[in-house]
Specification:
170 residues; alpha+beta; Trna Endonuclease, Chain: A, domain 1; five-stranded mixed sheet; 4 helices; 27% helix
């Protein structure tokens, strides 16, 4: 293990904390309101856009578009290895996002940097087209684990993480 290896389990930050961090950052970055704890919105909605979302001059989504936010760790470890973190994607929520013309915000959090390394929005249909492997999650729902390297370039994520860490050393 190198000095770069700090795992979420070794910190005071919980998965729930990381989820709230991601929701807050997504609301700020994409012009929305964080509604993840609002009892009047469905569980699968974390942010609602307050303005149209335009990326590279193209209209991506309009005001009131629901956004689900998923965060994962930069690296995780189990008994035998360390690897890229993964998002748990629930099939029913992904299908609902597609039906409701929502967006899926995916982010990678690093425990050593103590911040989100990357966060971007995706059309849920693009994620569904990745050929996810669905299985029962043990609670009667189908889910797939999606490694962040299937969505983001490993080189980009690792370079962004190194830049964050280097900026703290200055």
């Amino acid at each position: 293990m190198s000095a770069d290896d700090v795992f979420l389990s070794e910190t005071d930050t919980t998965l729930d904390d990381v989820g709230l961090i991601g929701e807050s950052e997504a609301a700020q970055r994409f012009g929305g309101e964080q509604v993840g704890n609002d009892q009047s919105t469905p569980d699968w909605v974390d942010v609602v856009l307050e303005d149209d979302l335009v990326v590279d001059g193209e209209l991506v989504a309009t005001e009131s578009t629901p956004v689900q936010v998923k965060m994962c760790a930069w690296r995780v470890r189990d008994q035998r290895s360390r690897r890229q973190g993964r998002w748990m994607i629930h099939r029913d929520e992904l299908e609902t996002l597609i039906d409701k013309r929502g967006l899926l915000a995916l982010g990678v959090y690093d425990a050593r940097a103590t911040e989100t390394v990357v966060l971007d929005v995706f059309f849920p249909g693009a994620i569904a087209s990745l050929g996810l492997t669905w299985c029962d999650n043990g609670h009667g729902r189908e889910a797939a684990r999606l490694r962040w390297g299937r969505v983001f370039s490993s080189e980009h994520v690792d370079a962004t993480r190194r830049a964050i860490l280097a900026s703290r050393e200055d």
